[in-house]
Design the sequence.
C-alpha cells in the first residue's frame, strides 16, 4: 500500500517537530548535549501528544554518530536504522500485550547483554500501566540499577496506575494537551506542504474536536480531505465530525432565551434527523455558550474564543442574553452531557434540558426609586413596633392569637379523615436526647439533601420540600411539616428519604414527622415541664423570633442582644 495516513507521514522525527511540549524537549536536549541524561524516563500524558515519538527521537539522538548533539542528524547509520526499525538495540514493547511477569523476566535477562550496533540499548515500553503488579515488582531492581548501556523509557496515559516505587526510579515528564492555536499552525504547515486548500474555520473546528491531541487532529484532517472536493471547508469538517454549524447554535440559543419551546425542539429534531451526534451537539453547545459568556464579560477576550466566530448574528444574540442565563444554561447542559453517556436515549435528556433552560424565567433586580424606598422604610418601622409589642406581651396574650386562629380554622373533611397521628411519647424521648450539634449538622446539609431527593424522586421531593428539621438526636430527626397533608404522605416515601439522608450525612437516622402547628404546641409543653425559668425565657424569645420571621419575613428581622 503506497498511501500513508497524514499522522504517519508527519510523525515528528526531530525535537523541533514536537509541538506544544517545549518544556520537555528543551530539558531532554540540554541533557543530551551535556551527556547528563538519566537511565530511566517516564512519559505521561493524553493520547496523541507525542510521547512515543519523542521516545524514538531520544533513542536516535543518544545513539547518533555525531553525539553529543541536540538533534539527530538523520544521516548516519544509527539514525536511519532506528527510524526504519532495522536496529535491534532499540526495542519497542506494547505493554498491553506483554503484561505478564514472564515477559518482564525476559527483558531482565536480556538487559545484561551489550548492544550490538549502537552505544545504548533503549527499551521503549508503551502503555506501561497495563503491566501486572508482579511484573512491576520483577522490573524494580533492573529499573533502579540497569547496566550502563541501557536506557528505559516508559510511556503511559494513566500514570496513577503505576506503582510509586516505579515512578520514584524514573525522571517523570508530564505531556500536556496541545493548544488549539498550536494545532492549527501545525496543520497549516502540513496543508501547505501537501498542497491542500483549507479554510481557517475548518482547521479551528478540527483543533477543537481533537481535544489537545495532534494525532487525532491529523486523522480528522485526513478524513476531511478525502470527503471534500477542491477545498476543505467548515461544512466538510462538520459533516465528518458530526458537529453543528454556528448559525444553528445561534438560533437554538436565541429561541431558548426567548422561551420559544416549539422552535427549539424543532431545531433539535432536525439535527438528530440529519444524523448529527447528540453528544457532539451538547459538546458544541456548551463551548458556544462558553464563548458567548467570555465575549459578554469582555469583547477584548475575543482571542480566547474556541468555538464561536464573532459575526453580526453572534453579537446580536450575545447582547440580548444575560450572563446569569448563560451560566445556568451551561450548568444544565453540563449535567445533560454527563447523563447521556449512560443512556440509550440521549435525545430525551437533551429535550428535557432544553425545556428546563427555555422555561426558566430570568429574575432581574428591580430599580427602586426614592418614594418606594421611603415607603418601604416606613413599613419596616411599623413592623418593628409590632414586633416589639409582641415580644413584650404576656405569655397568655401571646397564646391568644394562636388559639383564636386555631378556633377559626375548621378542619376539612379530608383532614378529619387523614389527620396525622403524632407519637408524642417518641417526640419527647427524642427531645430528651437532642443536641444542638446534631440539629446544626442536619440544617447545614438540608439544602443539598433536598437537591439530591429532587434528582432521585420527584414525588418524594414534593412531599418533603415544605418541611424543616427542628430537633435531632443521635438516632432520630424530627421534621416539622408546614402542611399536614405532606406529613400524612411522608410514610409512602420514608424509606427512600431516609436512605438518601443517610448517604448525605453518612449516618443512618430515623425521621419522625410532625405537623408544624403541633410541633410548636408540643415544644412549649416540653419546655414548661423540663426547663428552668431562664431557659424557658430563652426558648420563648426564640419562638417569638421564629413567629416574627413567619410574620414579616426573615430578611426584615434584626435581633439585638440585651
Sequence:
Amino acid at each position: 500500500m503506497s498511501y500513508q495516513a497524514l499522522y504517519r507521514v508527519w510523525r515528528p522525527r526531530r525535537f523541533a517537530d514536537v509541538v506544544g511540549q517545549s518544556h520537555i524537549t528543551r530539558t531532554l536536549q540540554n541533557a543530551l548535549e551535556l551527556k547528563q541524561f538519566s537511565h530511566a524516563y517516564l512519559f505521561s500524558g493524553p493520547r496523541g501528544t507525542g510521547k512515543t515519538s519523542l521516545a524514538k527521537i531520544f533513542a536516535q539522538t543518544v545513539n547518533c554518530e555525531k553525539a553529543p548533539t541536540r538533534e539527530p542528524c538523520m544521516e548516519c547509520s544509527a539514525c536511519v536504522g532506528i527510524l526504519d526499525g532495522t536496529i535491534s538495540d532499540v526495542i519497542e514493547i506494547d505493554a498491553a500485550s506483554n503484561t505478564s511477569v514472564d515477559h518482564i523476566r525476559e527483558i531482565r535477562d536480556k538487559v545484561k547483554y551489550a548492544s550490538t550496533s549502537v552505544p545504548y540499548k533503549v527499551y521503549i515500553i508503551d502503555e506501561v500501566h497495563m503491566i501486572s503488579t508482579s511484573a512491576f515488582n520483577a522490573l524494580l531492581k533492573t529499573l533502579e540499577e540497569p547496566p550502563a548501556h541501557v536506557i528505559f523509557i516508559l510511556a503511559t496515559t494513566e500514570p496513577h496506575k503505576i506503582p510509586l516505587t516505579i515512578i520514584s526510579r524514573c525522571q517523570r515528564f508530564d505531556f500536556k494537551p496541545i493548544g488549539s492555536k498550536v494545532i492549527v499552525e501545525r496543520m497549516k504547515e502540513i496543508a501547505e506542504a501537501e498542497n491542500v486548500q483549507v479554510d481557517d474555520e475548518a482547521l479551528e473546528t478540527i483543533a477543537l474536536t481533537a481535544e489537545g491531541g495532534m494525532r487525532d487532529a491529523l486523522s480528522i484532517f485526513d478524513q476531511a480531505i478525502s470527503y471534500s472536493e477542491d477545498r476543505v471547508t467548515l461544512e466538510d469538517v462538520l459533516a465528518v465530525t458530526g458537529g453543528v454549524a454556528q448559525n444553528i447554535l445561534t438560533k437554538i440559543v436565541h429561541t431558548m432565551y426567548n422561551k420559544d419551546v416549539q422552535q427549539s425542539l424543532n431545531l433539535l429534531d432536525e439535527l438528530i434527523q440529519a444524523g448529527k451526534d447528540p453528544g457532539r451537539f451538547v459538546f458544541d453547545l456548551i463551548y458556544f455558550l462558553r464563548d458567548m459568556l467570555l465575549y459578554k464579560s469582555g469583547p477584548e477576550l475575543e482571542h480566547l474564543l474556541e468555538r464561536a466566530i464573532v459575526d453580526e448574528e453572534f453579537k446580536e444574540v450575545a447582547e440580548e442574553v444575560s450572563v446569569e442565563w448563560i451560566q445556568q444554561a451551561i450548568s444544565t447542559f453540563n449535567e445533560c452531557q454527563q447523563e447521556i453517556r449512560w443512556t440509550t436515549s440521549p435525545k430525551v435528556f437533551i429535550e428535557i434540558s432544553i425545556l428546563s433552560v427555555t422555561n426558566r424565567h430570568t429574575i432581574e433586580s428591580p430599580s427602586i426609586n426614592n418614594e418606594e424606598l421611603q415607603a418601604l422604610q416606613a413599613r419596616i418601622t411599623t413592623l418593628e413596633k409590632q414586633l416589639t409589642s409582641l415580644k413584650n406581651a404576656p405569655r397568655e396574650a401571646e397564646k391568644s392569637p394562636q388559639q383564636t386562629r386555631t378556633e377559626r380554622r375548621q378542619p376539612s373533611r379530608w383532614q378529619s379523615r387523614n389527620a396525622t397521628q403524632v407519637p408524642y411519647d417518641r417526640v419527647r424521648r427524642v427531645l430528651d436526647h437532642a443536641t444542638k450539634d446534631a440539629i446544626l449538622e442536619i440544617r447545614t446539609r438540608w439544602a443539598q439533601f433536598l437537591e439530591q431527593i429532587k434528582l432521585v424522586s420527584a414525588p418524594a421531593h414534593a412531599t418533603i420540600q415544605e418541611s424543616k428539621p427542628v430537633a435531632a438526636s443521635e438516632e432520630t430527626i424530627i421534621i416539622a411539616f408546614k402542611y399536614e397533608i405532606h406529613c400524612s404522605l411522608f410514610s409512602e416515601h420514608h424509606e427512600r428519604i431516609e436512605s438518601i439522608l443517610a448517604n448525605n450525612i453518612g449516618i443512618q437516622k430515623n425521621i419522625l414527622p410532625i405537623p408544624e402547628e403541633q410541633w410548636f404546641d408540643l415544644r412549649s409543653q416540653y419546655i414548661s415541664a423540663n426547663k428552668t425559668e431562664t431557659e424557658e425565657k430563652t426558648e420563648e424569645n426564640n419562638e417569638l423570633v421564629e413567629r416574627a420571621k413567619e410574620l414579616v419575613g426573615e430578611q426584615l428581622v434584626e435581633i439585638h442582644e440585651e
